[in-house]
């Protein structure tokens, strides 16, 4: 594998073959994609150019979210327009366009090509991975075997839940009480089970290295585990009278295994051994009598206490006492099959099905013909956010463009983000690609951050050889952009360090106390900055210009919703509003979201008493139980509320959901109601965040799923 990455010059990169471009945050990835796109449109780059100019319909750009496709499409369209104007004027202040102009011999012809490209951008091949797969399957229906049209479903989560609930009913409801309790100790219901396996129900089916035997049942596994536990219990009861003398005569180190604790441990284990075995719980003290533990607590050169019981305890502790692997294996297999059967019955196709079908089609007898057809349509493919590619997606790209003459496969991503499995990245896919693609390039200048921040990050991650655990994902220091030389954060005219490590005083404490303390420290520091900003003493400077720091300049990164709540509560106590944004924990999982749902349902059907009563009982409405009971007993008052909510429904139908919610919040004093409660400001912020998301989630045309254009 070639570990040396060449610094990328986007105007000199050879535009044939397979090339891996590694781009850290802020190093100009989108700029690079746009520059390569312009070169490919005009056939620029001299000996490094693609053999011929390409059209926007021949240039495939794949990324992984709808938002990213729209951003890329807009950026490319803007660059095409700006370069066209530069060609017409034969001059420009933009350094990129200036270098391109030097290579364009016929600027009038180039301007005409760019005008055509600009007009065709709605048909440009900028897709999500799923949009690309769907387009290829439909355009090559014969080769791909998709001769019959199927309905595309965007969200399979309900199907997966229903299949999981069916699995739970089939396998868990009929269980004897003792086994059912063991299952319930792990999962409280189908929703909890689904949470554990949901990510493995999507995409390619996972390979289970050592699956349980098909003949094994929950009952047989349960009996086997109980038998193992009971065997050790029996051995303990038979040997317990010998243990004190055996250990006393050994070389045990009494500083690490004192007599007082020994007596307590034996007493607890004996009580457990004499009980009926109903679950798989083992006393913590049992591990103190394993052969391995006793050997570790024996003095150097001393005789280790030995007994078959100690070996039996070692063996019991060495193998998991669990039915979890059995349930998970069965659930993964059966739920996937149930979902697939239901989609076949309905004539539906999910996003992951499109990937699987294209992958299967490319590996079939007609696979080479399909790959050739795709290459003919798209001689060049640029895969953005490549670190988010999974093995199946990478296999598709390689099958189509690997080792093909007069084609290019450009893989563009940030290797450091390949460690983020929670967002879909696959570290091993990235390492495989890095080993298989010999031409590596890197963008080595951070155009976004201040010099202090760039240098601090370089210093921090250069402290160890394998900063990201894997040698195949090295840390490469980047340079700061000269134009950012004067970017600074100053407090009382003193430049602030770009990175500060906060440590809690004292030898040790619990994680909860530590997190609470750090949340308070964080909130206090933010308050001090904002106060200084209000007096003009905390400034963001850039050369001769400066402005006070504002709350919107500050973000706090957390690991979980719980940490976020600690920070937000600490900020709220200091009267600093904040909003929690997460790719993992949705604001739609909050109490505020549930209450908003009840309110929307009541507006949609105010004549349904239970629905309306649920909405009125929400904390945002500010009504007490007595208030609601009074309404229940006053028919005229209840009718007035029904009429009020019917009015909101009319606003929704005529003007949309946002005007309706604004009217409801104003009439019902929702902001005031929430602010009057503990944590109300945080809850109001959540509601405003939900409203913002609702505003931007109105149905839009999904370009890559419609017949008219890529997206």
UniProtKB/TrEMBL annotation:
Q: What class of enzyme is it?
A: isomerase
GO terms assigned for molecular function: 3'-5' DNA helicase activity; ATP binding; DNA binding; exodeoxyribonuclease V activity
Q: Which GO terms describe its cellular component?
A: cytosol; exodeoxyribonuclease V complex
PROSITE patterns, per database record: UVRD_HELICASE_ATP_BIND, UVRD_HELICASE_CTER
Q: Where are the transmembrane segments?
A: none
Entry keyword set: ATP-binding, Helicase, Hydrolase, Isomerase, Nucleotide-binding
Q: Where is the UvrD-like helicase C-terminal domain?
A: 480-711
What single Pfam family name could you report for this chain, choosing any that match? UvrD-helicase
- Residues recorded as binding ATP, renumbered to this chain, are 23-30
Taxonomy, superkingdom: Bacteria
Among InterPro entries, the record links this protein to: DNA_helicase_UvrD-like_C, DNA_helicase_UvrD/REP, P-loop_NTPase, RecB, UvrD-like_ATP-bd
Q: What is its EC number?
A: 5.6.2.4
All residue ranges annotated as the UvrD-like helicase ATP-binding domain in the record: 2-450
- Reactions listed under catalytic activity: ATP + H2O = ADP + phosphate + H(+); Couples ATP hydrolysis with the unwinding of duplex DNA by translocating in the 3'-5' direction
Which biological process, per GO, is one annotated for this protein?
Answer: recombinational repair
Q: Which residues form a coiled coil?
A: none
According to UniProt, the name of this protein is: DNA 3'-5' helicase
What organism is the protein native to? Salmonella enterica subsp. enterica serovar Wilhelmsburg
Give the organism's phylogenetic lineage: Bacteria, Pseudomonadati, Pseudomonadota, Gammaproteobacteria, Enterobacterales
């Amino acid at each position: 594998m070639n570990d040396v990455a060449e610094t990328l010059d986007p105007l000199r990169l050879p535009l044939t073959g397979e090339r891996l471009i590694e781009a850290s945050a802020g190093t100009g990835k989108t700029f690079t994609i746009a520059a390569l796109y312009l070169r490919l449109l005009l056939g620029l780059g001299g000996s490094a150019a693609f053999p011929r100019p390409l059209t926007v319909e021949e240039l495939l750009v794949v990324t992984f979210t709808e938002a990213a496709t729209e951003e890329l499409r807009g950026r490319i369209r803007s660059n095409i327009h700006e370069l066209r104007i530069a060609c017409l004027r034969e001059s420009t202040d933009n350094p990129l366009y200036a270098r391109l102009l030097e290579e364009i011999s016929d600027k009038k012809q180039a301007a005409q090509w760019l005008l055509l490209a600009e007009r065709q951008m709605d048909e440009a091949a900028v897709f999500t991975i799923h949009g690309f797969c769907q387009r290829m399957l439909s355009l090559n229906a014969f080769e791909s075997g998709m001769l019959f049209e199927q309905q595309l479903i965007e969200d399979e989560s309900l199907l997966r839940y229903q299949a999981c609930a069916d699995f739970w009913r089939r396998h868990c409801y009929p269980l004897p009480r003792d086994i059912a309790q063991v299952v319930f100790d792990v999962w409280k219901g189908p929703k909890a089970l689904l949470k554990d396996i949901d990510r493995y129900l999507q995409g390619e089916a996972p390979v289970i290295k050592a699956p349980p035997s098909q003949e094994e049942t929950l009952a047989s596994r349960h009996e086997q585990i109980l038998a193992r536990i009971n065997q050790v219990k029996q051995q303990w009861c038979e040997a317990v009278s010998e243990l004190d003398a055996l250990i006393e005569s050994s070389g045990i180190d009494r500083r690490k295994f004192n007599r007082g604790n020994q007596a307590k441990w034996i007493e607890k284990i004996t009580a457990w051994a004499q009980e009926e075995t109903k679950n798989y719980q083992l006393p913590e003290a049992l591990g103190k009598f394993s052969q391995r533990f006793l050997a570790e607590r024996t003095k150097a050169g001393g005789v280790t206490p030995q007994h078959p019981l100690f070996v039996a305890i070692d063996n019991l502790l060495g193998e998991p006492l669990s039915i979890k692997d059995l349930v998970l294996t069965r659930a993964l297999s059966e739920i996937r099959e149930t979902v697939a059967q239901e989609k076949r019955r309905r004539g539906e196709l999910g996003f992951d099905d499109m990937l699987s079908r294209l992958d299967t089609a490319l590996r079939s007898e007609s696979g080479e013909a399909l790959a050739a057809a795709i290459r003919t349509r798209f001689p060049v493919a640029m895969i953005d956010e490549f670190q988010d590619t999974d093995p199946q997606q990478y296999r598709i790209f390689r099958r189509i463009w690997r080792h093909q003459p007069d084609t290019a496969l450009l893989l563009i991503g940030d290797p450091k983000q390949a460690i983020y499995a929670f967002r879909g990245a696959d570290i091993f896919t990235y390492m495989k690609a890095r080993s298989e693609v010999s031409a590596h390039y890197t963008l080595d200048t951070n155009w976004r951050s201040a010099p202090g921040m760039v240098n601090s990050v370089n210093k921090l991650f250069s402290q160890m050889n394998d900063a990201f655990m894997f040698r195949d994902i090295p840390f490469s220091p980047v340079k700061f952009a000269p134009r950012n030389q004067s970017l600074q954060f100053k407090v009382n005219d003193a430049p602030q360090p770009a990175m500060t490590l906060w440590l809690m005083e004292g030898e040790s404490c619990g994680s909860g106390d530590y997190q609470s303390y750090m949340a308070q420290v964080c909130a206090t520091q933010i308050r001090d900055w904002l106060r200084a900003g209000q007096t003009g003493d905390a400034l963001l400077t850039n050369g001769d210009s400066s402005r006070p720091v504002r709350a919107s300049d500050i973000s706090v990164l957390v690991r979980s919703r719980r940490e976020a709540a600690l920070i937000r509560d600490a900020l709220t106590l200091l009267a600093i509003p904040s909003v929690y944004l997460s790719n993992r924990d949705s604001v739609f999982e909050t109490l505020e979201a549930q209450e908003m749902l009840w309110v929307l349902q009541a507006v949609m059907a105010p004549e349904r008493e239970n629905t309306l009563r649920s909405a009125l009982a929400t904390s945002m409405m500010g009504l007490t139980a007595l208030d609601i009971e009074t309404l229940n007993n006053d028919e005229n008052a209840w009718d007035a509320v029904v009429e009020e909510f019917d009015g909101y429904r009319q606003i929704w139908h005529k003007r949309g959901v946002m005007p309706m919610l604004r009217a409801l919040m104003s009439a019902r004093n929702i902001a005031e109601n929430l602010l009057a409660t503990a944590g109300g400001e945080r809850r109001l912020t959540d509601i405003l965040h939900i409203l913002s998301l609702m505003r931007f989630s109105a149905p839009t045309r999904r370009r890559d799923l419609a017949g008219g254009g890529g997206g």
